[in-house]
Design goal:
elongated, 2 strands, mainly alpha, 2 domains
């Protein structure tokens, strides 16, 4: 649902019902592919994005903005009362204006480059005064060591005998880093 809301936001006043339906389907498909496939590619593997913000907001927002260039319906703008002006022509590729997609892509590229540059500069500045990353030894133990709680409770499972065991390699590293009780009491 979040993906659909994010994707339709840039297009809300410009596309008709069919365009909105197609935007939702296309954006949801792209986000699913991004989350399940792109997150395994080298640059994205290092990103700690437990909530999938890059996918649900970045990819869906980009898709929604670009799809305005395809699905913008000039009759929707006339319905709102701004399309009757002779100088206003806002139509997407499927309504006879192939340049609108290029405008949308140019705007998206401008925003991406600007945000990347400003974020880089802010992080470089902050890096002069503080560490921006925890040491690798702490990162290996995960959220359990840093926050004293688990981000993904399914990573460790409680067996019937009351002893935690790891469901994933990351959870195994976190469990081995914890001091264990010398006399675990088995459940009866």
């Amino acid at each position: 649902m979040i993906t659909g809301l994010v994707a339709i936001t840039p297009a809300a006043g410009y596309i008709n019902g069919l365009g909105a339906l197609l935007t939702g389907i296309i954006a949801a498909t792209l986000v699913w592919l991004s989350w399940n496939k792109l997150s395994k590619v080298k640059p994205f593997r290092a990103v700690d994005d437990a909530l999938g913000v890059v996918h649900t907001h970045g990819v869906a927002g980009l898709a929604g903005g670009l799809l305005v260039g395809l699905f913008a319906d000039p009759s929707i703008i006339q319905y709102l009362g701004t399309g009757s002006t002779p100088n206003v022509s806002f139509a997407g590729l499927f309504y006879g204006n192939p340049r609108q997609f290029l405008w949308q892509a140019g705007a998206a590229l401008t925003v991406i480059v600007w945000d990347a540059l400003i974020t880089f500069l802010i992080l470089r500045f902050l890096g002069l005064f503080m560490n921006l990353r925890l040491p690798d030894s702490v990162l290996q133990t995960g959220d359990l060591a840093v926050h004293d709680e688990e981000a993904y409770p399914t990573d460790t499972l409680l067996r019937a005998d009351g002893i935690h065991h790891a469901a994933t390699p990351a959870a195994a590293a976190a469990l081995h880093a914890q001091p264990s009780s010398p006399n675990p009491t088995p459940r009866t």
